[in-house]
Amino acid sequence: YTPSLFSAVFVGLLIPILEELGFRLFLVPSRMNVLISLSIIYSLFLTAFLMHVLGEKPDSNLAFFGIAFFVIAVKAGFILNFGLNRGKPMVIDFSNLIEAHPRAAYFTSALLFSLLHLVYQWLYREACYVFDIGAFLVYLNYGLVFSVIRLKIGIWASMLIHGSLNLILLFVA
Predict the structure, then answer these.
(1) Taking the CB of the first residue and of the last residue of the chain, which one, N or C, has fewer CB atoms within 10 A?
(2) Cα 41 to Cα 109: distance, rounded to the nearest angstrom
(3) Residue 82: other Cβ atoms inside 10 A
(4) DSSP three-state, residue 129
């Protein structure tokens, strides 16, 4: 099996950028980081749900709609956050909560990351159990490691390492 250029770009570049912005950007809390993260997480889970409802696989053309959902979710977040309240933020500010409980934020980030990957794994292989404890633990650990990289080195480093790992797995599998 030789992956296509599309698969390599999608798995090695686009997905790591979206996932790192979604699951790790808010670990350095600010209202904007939290807003962007929540919007991306929403769009990733919405894409998975729509793939399931429409019977599509993650490598189908519907995966392109993930980008559209991302843009729509971010725009909706900005409209809800600033537009409806005359420029004053109205969404709950999770920044203080994240600052007060950083370990809970790391674990929540890793947990959501793991759950999303289990959902996509389930969509990819019908024979896969909905909840695979081994895969869950692997993705949970990846999520925790990417969180540490994000906090110690930066978001670009976590994107680069995440993308590199995805490409290695794509070409080895």
Answers:
(1) N
(2) 10
(3) 15
(4) coil
**For residue 39, what are the contacts with CB-CB under 8 A and spacing of at least 6?**
70, 73, 74, 76, 77
Q: How far apart are CA 3 and CA 6, in angstroms?
A: 8
> pTM for the whole thing?
0.80
Q: Which two tokens stand for residue 66?
A: 């993930």
| pLDDT number for residue 119 | 81
- Using alpha carbons, select from 33, 20, 11 the residue that is nearest to residue 124: 11
Write the pLDDT tens digit of every residue in 37-61.
Answer: 887 887 777 777 776 677 666 555 5
Query: Measuring CA to CA, how many Å separate 43 from each of 40, 54, 63, 141?
Result: 5, 16, 11, 23
CA-based angle 57:24:116, to the nearest 5?
25
DSSP 40-65: HHHHHHHHHHHHHHHT--TTSGGGGH
| Segment 115-143, tens digit of pLDDT | 988 887 777 665 555 567 888 899 999 99
Distance of alpha carbon 89 from its chain centroid, rounded? 24
